[in-house]
Amino acid sequence: MPALLPDEEADVIRNRYKPDVIEGDMDSIRSEVLDFYIKLGTKVVDESHDQDTTDLHKCVSYICDFTSDLDKSRLCILVAGALGGRFDHEIGNINVLCGFKNMRIILISDDCLIHLLPGGQNHEIHILPSVVGPHCGLIPIGMPSKSTTTTGLQWNLNGTKMQFGGLISTSNIAKDDTVTVHSDSDLLWTISIKKSQDRLQ
């Protein structure tokens, strides 16, 4: 956060944007960072006894437990830093999307975003060209897609079969401000994020 607001004192920014909760197995947080936020009143939930789920899974479960069913339908969880590191961590984060497929969870990196499109539903994706695109992709996850149909892409799919080892839709282009997708199975939607300097041009 301090890097985003270079004209302000770092401690002032850290005090203003403190997390409500820090949850996980605590294997990667420095003790002085943990102590700093504890003194600011941040709640710490140590889940080091659970080595069968990822930190992201633990955090999403925590959010689910404290969100009413009505609010869950409107909830969107943005996960920063979920991509671009170790491959096994990235796959673990994508696995969380599949485990909570009825929740809207978006994984964001400096380069792209990813979210799950559950199968059997009609999806309408609104594109803000000044922020995202044009490069995008649709990737079957968990099982092959026997039939995927899209509109709004440069290379639309029309009842197309997709599977690993066969065709998957990568390096596609979002041509319209609205993209529609229908598939018989779960797909990952990914689209590039424009760098701040690109947005200014």
From TrEMBL:
<keyword id="KW-0547">Nucleotide-binding</keyword>
<keyword id="KW-0067">ATP-binding</keyword>
<comment type="function">
    <text>Catalyzes the phosphorylation of thiamine to thiamine pyrophosphate (TPP). TPP is an active cofactor for enzymes involved in glycolysis and energy production. Plant leaves require high levels of TPP for photosynthesis and carbohydrate metabolism.</text>
</comment>
<dbReference type="InterPro" id="IPR007371">
    <property type="entry name" value="TPK_catalytic"/>
</dbReference>
<protein>
    <recommendedName>
        <fullName>thiamine diphosphokinase</fullName>
        <ecNumber>2.7.6.2</ecNumber>
    </recommendedName>
</protein>
<feature type="domain" description="Thiamin pyrophosphokinase thiamin-binding">
    <location>
        <begin position="123"/>
        <end position="187"/>
    </location>
</feature>
<dbReference type="GO" id="GO:0009229">
    <property type="term" value="P:thiamine diphosphate biosynthetic process"/>
</dbReference>
<dbReference type="InterPro" id="IPR036759">
    <property type="entry name" value="TPK_catalytic_sf"/>
</dbReference>
<dbReference type="GO" id="GO:0005829">
    <property type="term" value="C:cytosol"/>
</dbReference>
<dbReference type="GO" id="GO:0006772">
    <property type="term" value="P:thiamine metabolic process"/>
</dbReference>
<dbReference type="Pfam" id="PF04265">
    <property type="entry name" value="TPK_B1_binding"/>
</dbReference>
<dbReference type="Pfam" id="PF04263">
    <property type="entry name" value="TPK_catalytic"/>
</dbReference>
<dbReference type="InterPro" id="IPR006282">
    <property type="entry name" value="Thi_PPkinase"/>
</dbReference>
<dbReference type="GO" id="GO:0004788">
    <property type="term" value="F:thiamine diphosphokinase activity"/>
</dbReference>
<dbReference type="GO" id="GO:0030975">
    <property type="term" value="F:thiamine binding"/>
</dbReference>
<dbReference type="GO" id="GO:0016301">
    <property type="term" value="F:kinase activity"/>
</dbReference>
<dbReference type="InterPro" id="IPR036371">
    <property type="entry name" value="TPK_B1-bd_sf"/>
</dbReference>
<dbReference type="GO" id="GO:0005524">
    <property type="term" value="F:ATP binding"/>
</dbReference>
<keyword id="KW-0808">Transferase</keyword>
<dbReference type="InterPro" id="IPR007373">
    <property type="entry name" value="Thiamin_PyroPKinase_B1-bd"/>
</dbReference>
<keyword id="KW-0418">Kinase</keyword>
